[in-house]
Amino acid sequence: MKIITISREFGSGGRELGKRLADELGIPCYDHEIIEMIAKENGFDERYVANVSEKSIEAAYPLTIGHRFAMPPLQIMDQPIRVAAAQRQIIENFAKQSDCVIVGRCADVILEDMKPLNLFVYADMPSRLQRCKDRAPEGENLTDTELMRMIRQIDKQRLQHHQMYSDMKWGAKEAYHLCVNTSGKEIKSLIPALAAYVRAWFEA
Amino acid sequence: MKIITISREFGSGGRELGKRLADELGIPCYDHEIIEMIAKENGFDERYVANVSEKSIEAAYPLTIGHRFAMPPLQIMDQPIRVAAAQRQIIENFAKQSDCVIVGRCADVILEDMKPLNLFVYADMPSRLQRCKDRAPEGENLTDTELMRMIRQIDKQRLQHHQMYSDMKWGAKEAYHLCVNTSGKEIKSLIPALAAYVRAWFEA
What we know:
homodimer; about 200 residues; alpha/beta; five-stranded parallel beta sheet; 9 helices; 5 strands; globular
């Protein structure tokens, strides 16, 4: 079984890299699909799941309250844990079905026993800013400072979320088999060689 | 100009990877050659240069004294600086001559202006121990604890040496374009894909 997990800094192009790598390898890539399934199976709003699914349980609370769920405190506390459990289940099911690429959501830790190839994708701040601007929704006009704050905040949440699952530090190279710096590079052009590396790694 | 620098944890196979990658790309690899040239041009002992060339100036002193150079203090202090200057000059000359792979010796920092591809090679401790044992000279019978101490000590020296040249921390992924974890893998089998990645990276 060839499972490739992608962990990525926000704005580094990790999601694009995951999709393209999966296409090149002819296997499915799971990313937002995971959120959709959790939301559907648990009757949650997708935006809520997206928020909770890569945050620490602590960080998730104010959001839940912010979204005005009219629930007793115990149930509010229970929700992020249910999301985490559903996420684990769905990721394990995807991985058992076939070779695949899974983006984010601590799949590297969740699937540890299946010996996945864990990729980390990162880039310098100018590249990440540029990527965020290129992909910004119509009408979003954040300044560089605001964008940088958002990038750092999201990465901080990913780090905290990862700590719930593992002693290994999110982003520490020791936790990954290959770390790819995409700064100033067109991701598309790196894909054939990366796919070759993945194939060689599983055979080596 | 395609310059590839290899930084590596001790025992990770970085030197082997550098040599094989250079062979695959059909370009020269400079490693021990740098030490030989410094030694020859400056009338130093090769072992002395090897010791000094990847250590911090501070760490190099006791060794100099340990080797009983009969010199006044000022000249002793002067030597590691002369080695560092010679090293810089030789590395720059190699890089200007042709595409090449350069292993260690802060070539990533020294050649920054030439926009090299900086590779970092690392591995987990069990793999590094095994590699050290496989390559130990006849009659060397260090225990695992002794080997681990040596591995950590050498990496610490590389880190300190790097600090003389750069604000970037040795081994921090941000300083490299690709970080390759060789744990449990035969390096030879990863080379064609790595060479493809190098070619793509310079064209991307």
